[in-house]
Amino acid sequence: MSEQLTSRMALLGQPANLSLLTQCLHGIERECLRVDSDGQLALTPHPRALGSALTNAQITTDYSESLLEFITPALADPAQTLENLELTHRFVYSKLADEYLWSPSMPCALPDEEQIPIARYGDSNIGKLKYVYRNGLALRYGKTMQCIAGIHYNFSLPDALWKLLQAEEGDQQSALDYQSASYIAMIRNFRRYSWLLMYLFGASPALDVGFMRGRPHKLQMLDENTLYLPYATSLRMSDLGYQSSAQSELTPCYNDLASYIDSLRQAVGTPYPPYVEIGTRKDGEWLQLNSNILQIENEYYSSIRPKRVTDSGERPIQALNSRGVQYIEVRCLDINPMLPLGIDLTESRFLDAFLLFCALQDSPQLERGECHASTENFLKVVKEGRRPNLHLQRIDGPITLQAWASELLGKIQQSAELLDRSHGGTAHVTALQAQQAKVDDVSLTPSAQVLAQLQKGESFTQFALRQSKLHAEYFRSQPLSAEQLSEMEASATRSLEEQAAIEAQDEEDFDTFVAAYQASILASDN
Fold it and tell me: Which residue ranges traverse the bilayer (predicted)?
């Protein structure tokens, strides 16, 4: 236990301060493909009964018309966050007719690339911009990769907690700068230790053979329709998933917020020759927003992001630059196909303890060697995390995954106990014990459980479709109350009206709108 961790926990454990930990906020974003009854990608438009993908705050689309995204509000009790997510799933199933929500992260058998429908957001300038951005993603990375789904876990500590720590430590920065620096330090620790989450929650050790589109790979055949790696935890987070030669040199520094913002701003403003060759338009039609390394900052694929809620028309980097970090977004979590929501309260409770540990633990700057080792550890665990006697590289030398994991869980237990003292009960320590059991017995990990099912003779697609139909039965067996249904239908209708109002208010032409949007990020440091 470091001196800083011990003193910070003692401070937060004082009776006058303990309630601060009940004010942490939790939000979940869950993506999932719509499929037909045969497990094929649904090529139908985004259901109008779900409202406008542009303006509905809780139900939108991600890359494709077929890729739904459910967004919860940020709530203090993760049980309520999951309850909100479940209500959204039930509402969607009340409108889906004969379609299903695909249960795992890796996609179903996909049609030819040109048949995968890019998400549409209407005729407003902002709606068109979202479409052109996605068209650019298709040109740059292909549509197949964009059909991978995941869970994003948004987490914040209350501002008052940061102010308490700052006062205790005698830090002379502004409150805003201290809070931002603390979140960035938390992200550095996340980078050091996120391999543990891949071992504990990775759930994509296999995929449909068609996903590779005939590209060379080093996967093994489980059956004629399924590829896998025997010790993989999360092929979604491996170099088979989100990969980009343009982004390979882009390594935003998490040693301070300014350098992180600057590296993304440079990427959005720096031309990339292969994209320049494609151009931004053809025959008068927009192909991509620009020919730079990134079209917009959200194109950068990362396992965690510092975030700030944006004002209308404001870009993420502008919000961070002007008002600092408000919360973090964990982006590396697989959807667990064994769970109806893809995540459960045990996972959420552990994530809270893990993230609190990352926030309170010492977090020295990531020097190049440690930064590289953190990336290598992560990539090794996603491909080989269940390999017996797997060694990772720690700053003091090699260590087995099991030994390091148990040591880390011992430290995280202090956070879990603190959260339990704050909330009452033993839920966080119990959640942590469930993770230690996975370290002790690899067969309890989600990735091992998925492979165990597949090794009974089902293909990846057969297993995933069976789970999808089981989950559909679960949600449809507990329909919404008349009041809940009416409220969510009204929300969907309002969102359609809001989209129509935005379209009616647009006055400038799209080219002018895009030019102003591009200029805004480059000017955001002035």
Answer: 193-211
